[in-house]
Amino acid sequence: xxxxxxxxxxxxxxVIYLSALKQSDVxxxxxxxxxxxxxxxxxxxxxxxALEFDGLAADMxxxxxxxxxxxxxxxxxxxxxxxxxxxWLFETFKASAEIDPYxxxxxxxxxxxxxxxxxxxxxxNDLLVKGADKRDWDWTLLFYAGFNEFFFLHNSxxxxxxxxxxxxxxxxxxxxxxxxxxxxxxxxxxxxxIRFLVELLQGTTNPAEREQYETRLExxxxxxVLEQTIKKFKVEFGRVPLRLxxxxxxxxxxxIPDDPYGGTFYIALNGSVGTTSDLRxxx
Length: 283
Description:
Blueprint: H1 2-28, H2 43-50, H3 54-72, H4 83-99, H5 105-118, H6 121-134, H7 140-151, H8 156-167, H9 176-185, H10 189-202, H11 207-237, H12 245-249, E1 265-267, E2 273-275
Antiparallel strand pairs: 1-2
C-alpha cells in the first residue's frame, strides 16, 4: 500500500509541478522586470513525496521538457523560441536533475542545447557542476563545463581547472590533461574548441547529437582556416584584409568556406572572424 501511495503521489505532484511551472512563466512575461524571477522550485517536495520512485518522477519531468523542445523544432518562426520558453525548459530539466541528481540525461541534453541556442551558459554550468558533485565517478560533466567556460565565457583559467578535475576521475580521456595545459597557457581559442568538439564526438552515439556536434565542428574548422589565412595575408601584405574576398583574390585560399548554419563569414572590426549565423541555425 505504501508503494502504491508513493506512486500516485509521484504522478500527481509531477503533473502539478509542470502545470505550476508553465503558469508561473506565462505570468512572468507580463510582470515588470523588477519582480520577474524564479519562484520556489517544486522539485524538493516532489523528491520527498516520491519516496523510492524519485527516478520515475525525474523521468516524467524530463520527458515533458523533451517533448516540448521537440515540438518547437517544427516551428518556422524567428526566433524559434522565446526567452521565457528557454527559461521554462531549463527549469524543467533542472527540476528533473534535482529530483534525481544521478539521472544523466538532463545534464547531457541541457549541455547540448542551452549554451548554444538558449544562451544560458552560466546556468548550464551551475547545473553541470552540481551534477558532477553527485555523480562523482563521472568525468564528462566537468568536461562539458570546461568547454563552456572556455568557448562561451572565455575563461581559460576556470576551464583548465575543471578539466584537471575531470582528468582525475576514473576512465577519463587521456587527452584531457593536454587540453587543460593548453588552456592554462591560453590562446588558440578556435583550435582548442575544435579539439574539444572532436573529443565530444568520440563519446557521442546519439545520431541527432552527433549531427549537431559535426555541424558545429565544420563551422569552427571553416573559421580556423580563415583565421590562419588572415595571418598569412598579414605577413605577406603587412595589413589585415578589409574583407574575406581579398584572401581569394590574393591566391592564399581557393574559396571562402561555407557556414553550415547558413550564415556568411566576415571579418569583424577587431580583425577576428565572425559569422552572421552566430553559430546557430538560420531558418
